[in-house]
Give the backbone structure.
Amino acid sequence: MTEVIDQLAVIGRLLRAENVLIVSHKNPDGDTLGSAGALLHALKGLGKQAAVLCADPIPARYDYMNLELFEGQFHPGFVVAVDVASQQLFGDAISAYTHRVDLCIDHHGSNTGYADELYLKPEASATCEIMYELLTAMNVEITAQIAECIYTGLSTDTGCFLFSNTTASAHRVAADLMEAGARVQDLNTILFENKSRARMAIELVALQNLEYHFDGRCALIYLTRQQIAASGVAANELEDITSLPRKIEGVEVGITLRQLPGASYKISIRTTEGVDACAIARRFGGGGHGRAAGCELEGNLENAKAAILAEVEKALTRIHGAQES
Amino acid sequence: MTEVIDQLAVIGRLLRAENVLIVSHKNPDGDTLGSAGALLHALKGLGKQAAVLCADPIPARYDYMNLELFEGQFHPGFVVAVDVASQQLFGDAISAYTHRVDLCIDHHGSNTGYADELYLKPEASATCEIMYELLTAMNVEITAQIAECIYTGLSTDTGCFLFSNTTASAHRVAADLMEAGARVQDLNTILFENKSRARMAIELVALQNLEYHFDGRCALIYLTRQQIAASGVAANELEDITSLPRKIEGVEVGITLRQLPGASYKISIRTTEGVDACAIARRFGGGGHGRAAGCELEGNLENAKAAILAEVEKALTRIHGAQES
């Protein structure tokens, strides 16, 4: 089992570490890469060898972080995972390096405790917020480069300070980062205002396929394999389309069905307070959080829709009573 | 001409004022109403009579601010305008009260100086940010109610801390407001995640009508009068659709054409750095800012499109040279 350690112990480990391999999770997002970048630049500033390892390619939009990737240039003496909740999230391609992780720094309450030592702050809005406090406590100079890495994770994990995990502390750190030289305006454009033409095309399809059910309390969109392929949209660009149906006025349950290569449907469930998304997902062997959960359903579109809508109706009936038909 | 006064003088005016009429601009947004609400609740907390006046109805989503509207319940002794850049923005319906404004509190650099006295901070991200500093300097207790009013203007004017006017100070104020009890999560849902079904319908039309020009450097959407009417979308819900085309990867000029009742087209121009939106708008008698401007074009859709695209092409050619056809 992992040993949970405090900030002072983490600082001790990092200051003593040499040849540090910093590992991000697969399908990397802004928080895992921003945390890795901030730690990378901090350690290099302290004169240490360090590099970042990730099972998947780093999307080009993060180029400004100047992540130095691990390509065997040193023999790792200390392995630190950032923002990685479980060992499965590393990806098989890099298991040679992740079979033994010395330290994990994370904000996921669901962290499985796979690392020798764990520094976990589930109340932090992002792992990058933890990283900022850590580097500040280490007296590392927050350069503009480090500030931009941290801002990346802080802003992407909070949906630019919109999501419910946004804390007062997240806002204060953002203010500090701006004063440290992070070009927040440029980053916001890169991170939040650059939709590909393929993404626009799939949004059109999603809106064409938008359906309302149960007096508008449920909105549903679906995307077939063929529609996804025709748009040319990348998988990571599809993720946040699942938040679209729930944003509509009056909608308590937003459902997104995406057809998977194996012909089953991946179902994403987003709910307002009061409707337990996870309970719905669990009926089909899925899981997640109270307001965001998912599951997979075999069969064709009509069957998958009918099955999930039946469970949504039960959940809404429990709250509002049976509807007039 | 107006006299520009400092914070100390403003505090003196407000503390001495009785029967205060607080005036917002027409087509009210979160910043003018949030500023008005914060000042209203602060003055009432000081035992004064006060009420808010606006030429247009207050949208229901702002109900949580508990704005007390002026309905003749006292004879105004002091008139203060908040977030109103020019006298025209009051609206004719309330000109009996706005022919003489004692004090204007504003963050618009373009403020025309119509009030007897002006407290202007163009560097502030929102008038609500000025209001927070002011009330704090007055030793007013920032109640949860006041904090929610201020958060409303701060978040809406910055697009939830996304736009280029977002300052470090805006983030710090947001942190203070959360600690003062503002239910930021609920407000974010109300302000940013509640799209009407009509708005979804018009977004579908906009995406169906999306065109790319000049190697994808220009994206254009248009909405006819008939399409707007068929969707049932309210005018204020259409405003931010103009930001849609510019958000697409590679797009330097985003154009939105909306047909007006008189059959002319209202053109909104949004640009990335390097393309002067205002210069394009001025060619047709319009105006605005460097990256957001607008104008009106007579004629049918084809004529309006051809005219604006010709000017966009000239602007892009000045930057990139002539395109291969």
In short: Chain A has a mean pLDDT of 94. The radius of gyration of chain A is 21 Å.
